[in-house]
Amino acid sequence: MAKKTSIELYSEILNELRSDNREPVYFFYGEEEFFLDKLQEVVEGIIPEDQKDFNFDLLYGRDVTPEKVLSIIRSYPMMAEQRIVILRDFKELSGYGAQAEGYEGKVNDLIPYLEQPNPTTLFVCIDTKKPSGRSKIGKAFKKHAGFYEFEEVPDYRLPDWIISWAKKHHNKKIEPPAAQMLAQYVGNSLQLLSTEIDKVCTFVDTSDTITESEIKEIIGLYREYSVFELKDALFDRNLDEALFIAEQMLQHSKANTGEIIRSVGFFYNVFSNIWQIRRLAGQGNSKKQVQNTLGINNNWYFNKLWKDASAFQLVEMPRIFEALLDADRASKGFTKMDPSTILLLMIKRIIG
Asked: The whole model's pTM is what?
C-alpha cells in the first residue's frame, strides 16, 4: 500500500483528534511545520476556553525538565474531564537532565508513563525531528503513542491541496488553472500558500469561483509579461520571444535579483514535475499509472502536466537543473554577472 502523504495523514488525524477514539499520547514530527502548527491549534481547541486556566499547558523543551513534564501530565484535571499538555521542541528536553544541577530527571523517565499513560491527560509532543529510532525513548513513543511524520508536500500535489483548502476553509472554488498558477508562483510553503488563499478568497468575497485573472491580480502579476508568459515561450523553444519577455520582466521589476530568485524557484517547481512524469513514463508506466502514482486527482491539472512533460526529454533534465542551480547561486552573489545576464543565460541553457 502506498505511503500516505502529509495531506492524507493530516485529514485522518484531524478526524481522530476530534473523536472519542484519540490516543492518550501523540508525537507529531517532520519538515512540514504548517501541519504541526495546525494540529497544535486543533489540540488546543479540544478543551473549552473556560477550562484552560487549570487544565491546559503549552510547554517548550528548552524551558522544562522531564521531571516537571511528568508532574504535569500525571496530575488530574480540575473541574473538567481532561487535561491537555503540549510539549514543543521535544528534543531540546532530552539533554536537559545531564546539564542541570542535581537530578532533575532524564528523558527516559517518560517511558513508564508512555507504557501506562494517565487516561485523563492528552499529551502531545511536537518537534521537527523525531527521537532516534535506536533510543529507548524513540522506541517507546513508536510503540505506545500515535507517532506520525509530516513530510513536505510534493509540488505536484499542491494544486489539489489549494483547491481543497479553499473549499474547506472559505467555501470557495478555485479553478484548476488558477490553483496551478498559485502553486507555481508561491512554491511549496503551505504557510505562504494559505496566506495567499486567505487573501484571494477575501478579495473575491462576492464570487464563489476564483479564476486565473483574479489570482494574477492579487499576487501582483498583473502586468503584460510575467513568468507564465516566459514559461510558454520556453516550452515553445522560442528563444527570441523568451529573451524579449525576460528583458521586459526585468525592466518592470522593482528588484531584479528578487525577480530572478522567484523565477528560478518557479522553474524548479515546473521542471521537478516534468522530471517525475518523464521518469515514471520511462519506466513503462501508462499515463493513468503515472497519475495514480503521483496521487494527482484533478484530471485537468494532470493533463496539463503531461502536456508540459512532452516538451522536454528526460535526458535534458540534468542540463536544465544545472542551469537553474547556477542561476540560483549567481543571483545570490556567487558571480560578477549582472541580473540580466544571469536570467538570459539561464534561458539559453534551458532551451538548449
From this structure: 0.71
